[in-house]
């Protein structure tokens, strides 16, 4: 999407201004050379965080017993996260203490993902590998902590790596796989899923609008214009699709985090 | 292009690989969603629970498709 305005500037260039991977490694714009260097994606992240916190804090401050439309919408979302994500997987007793964490993850990931289709921001704040990785590490720490607290470190590892009821030769193959899953696959899969989804979404939408710009505005000829209009339709459809994906990925991230933490607890027989 | 070369492939053959990488997860998601629909039709009262499980499974499968995409990113 960002390439639409860029393409205006680069009209002299031949061919559409297609998005590339370099969109996700933008140059630093503030505090260059210091550890606090800020690039476009980080700026989007900061702006999104500030907006989200302001809106939610104002909503919370003005909360009334009889909610208005906006308050009802926010409450519905929070209720949905608590009841349909956390309590449904963990149950209310165990899940209670994880409500703030999972709610934070869901809301942040959702808003950050939505940045990808907000005009002016045009790139999802989760579209660089660091942000999803931070959330994944948070989840990682939490499920280890839950496991160690419930069984002790040895007990947790025994439970996970040497599950009961398996004939012993199977352990030769099962234990390494379980260890790999516990240490690497879970956090990396959380990271890659979110990150790759956002990158792919941005590339799709940006490609559609880049072709729209090229065929509809920069090229002449009726047939080509029709092609451009089709690309525009595609772009609009994919923009809506990205909205859906933003919500779905937030949901998936939150529910997998809940499932991973829940698996660290002993199952009631 | 030579006069002898009748057809020429430009670009990289690995692009085909990235495309094929979408095939397996596509089949997988089809099976997952189909089975979830079947089960919902048999037992509508557990529809909510089934939907959650379906999405967890679909998320696992989706990751496999995304691996192809990550390979593409790494190759850039």
UniProtKB/TrEMBL annotation, chain A:
Signal peptide: none annotated. GO terms for cellular component: plasma membrane; proton-transporting ATP synthase complex. It is a multi-pass membrane protein. Keywords: ATP synthesis, Cell membrane, CF(0), Hydrogen ion transport, Ion transport, Membrane, Transmembrane, Transmembrane helix, Transport. It comes from the Bacteria. CDD domains: ATP-synt_Fo_a_6. It holds the Pfam family ATP-synt_A. The chain crosses the membrane at residues 37-60, 98-119, 125-144, 194-217, 229-261. Belongs to the ATPase A chain family. PANTHER family: ATP SYNTHASE SUBUNIT A (PTHR11410). Key component of the proton channel; it plays a direct role in the translocation of protons across the membrane. This is ATP synthase subunit a. It comes from Bifidobacterium pullorum subsp. gallinarum.
UniProtKB/TrEMBL annotation, chain B:
Keywords: ATP synthesis, Cell membrane, CF(0), Hydrogen ion transport, Ion transport, Lipid-binding, Membrane, Transmembrane, Transmembrane helix, Transport. One of its GO terms (cellular component) is plasma membrane. It is a multi-pass membrane protein. One of its GO terms (molecular function) is proton-transporting ATP synthase activity, rotational mechanism. The keyword Membrane applies. PROSITE patterns: ATPASE_C. Pfam families: ATP-synt_C (PF00137). It is found in: Cell membrane; Membrane. The record marks 62 as: Reversibly protonated during proton transport. Belongs to the ATPase C chain family. NCBIfam families: ATP_synt_c (TIGR01260). F(1)F(0) ATP synthase produces ATP from ADP in the presence of a proton or sodium gradient. F-type ATPases consist of two structural domains, F(1) containing the extramembraneous catalytic core and F(0) containing the membrane proton channel, linked together by a central stalk and a peripheral stalk. During catalysis, ATP synthesis in the catalytic domain of F(1) is coupled via a rotary mechanism of the central stalk subunits to proton translocation. This is ATP synthase subunit c. It comes from Bifidobacterium pullorum subsp. gallinarum.
